[in-house]
Specification:
The chain starts with a helix and ends in a 51-residue tail after the last helix. α2 crosses α3, α6 crosses α7 and α8 runs antiparallel to α9. The protein has one domain. It contains 14 helices and no strands. It is globular and about 50 Å long.
Length: about 300
């Protein structure tokens, strides 16, 4: 297989009708490492919206059980990508996602914003750091994939195009990013978790490198001092260099799913989607979607 042969295959598919297949080819074959990093960043930046960050701090899931909650989130999303929306495993995963969200009073606006990060951040990361930029087919397919996921989650008024998602994300962050002490606790716990995946002496270096990859509004919202220009330049150059080296490698012949990542540590003996995630806590709030769900919502 030649380096761009899979991209040629993607371009022969319909970006809407074949959205799941295109997204799987892109995320599991072309850019598995980059999609993992981009979706980590997507979820992480949502903490800078105080309503989201405070809620996550109050549940204590991301501050006291960081590894398991990271694993559950990754595995639930990965199940849908691997099997497609019609599969039993995927419907079970989406049902678990919906059950967890219904335990808390999450606004439709916040839900749409979180969905927008899944659409926008992978393109921004891949176009900046990966071995090639996303094709228009991949951008449209990714947008359609997450629009479908959003419909299954009962999120109303979902944007229709990538550009609409991007406008939503930028305007929402400009309006809502702000300092919050509890959100900062969630952020610190997440950075500590990422550092724990590597030898302990590297922790300070890894924290600095991670902060160097964040944009200024995100650093300001969390109250972090920006790394020096030298550290920022070195960190970003290192990730770009990785992308250039990947371009020289033979194309991946087997898919790599997030469940195969070394960062996933909570289930050495395997797992079932039905067992992942938290369980609803009585009295913690209402359904995140105000009872106006589409017919596609997975109950």
């Amino acid at each position: 297989m030649k380096r761009f042969e899979r991209l040629d295959r993607i371009r022969r598919l319909d970006p809407v009708a074949d959205a799941v297949e295109i997204y799987r080819l892109s995320a599991a074959f072309e850019f598995p490492w980059d999609y993992t990093r981009a979706l980590e960043l997507a979820l992480y930046r949502t903490y800078a919206v105080p309503a989201i960050g405070r809620l996550l701090a109050e549940t204590a899931e991301l501050t006291e059980r960081s590894q398991r909650r990271y694993d559950d989130t990754v595995l639930l999303l990965d199940t849908v990508m691997e099997h497609g929306f019609a599969a039993h495993e995927s419907r079970t995963a989406i049902r678990r996602i919906n059950q967890m969200h219904r335990s808390y009073d999450i606004s439709d606006d916040d839900m749409r914003y979180v969905l927008s990060t899944f659409v926008v951040m992978p393109r921004r990361w891949i176009d900046t750091y990966a071995w090639r930029r996303l094709s228009r087919h991949e951008i449209v397919a990714t947008t359609e994939y997450y629009r479908t996921l959003g419909r299954h989650m009962g999120i109303p008024d979902i944007p229709e195009t990538f550009e609409e998602f991007e406008s939503l994300l930028d305007s929402y962050e400009k309006e809502h990013f702000a300092w919050d002490e509890r959100a900062r606790q969630v952020s610190d716990a997440t950075l500590d978790l990422m550092a724990s995946w590597y030898p302990r002496p590297l922790a300070p270096l890894l924290r600095s490198a991670t902060l160097a990859l964040l944009d200024e509004p995100l650093l300001r919202a969390f109250g972090y001092e920006a790394p020096s220009a030298t550290v920022t330049s070195l960190a970003r150059r290192a990730v770009r260099t990785r992308g250039r080296l990947v371009r020289l490698l033979p194309p991946r012949r087997a898919p790599h799913f997030a469940r195969q990542n070394r960062e996933i540590k909570s289930y050495p003996n395997g797992y079932r989607p039905a067992d992942l995630g938290t369980r609803p806590v009585p009295g913690m709030g209402g359904c995140p979607v105000r009872q106006t769900k589409s017919a596609d919502t997975v109950e």
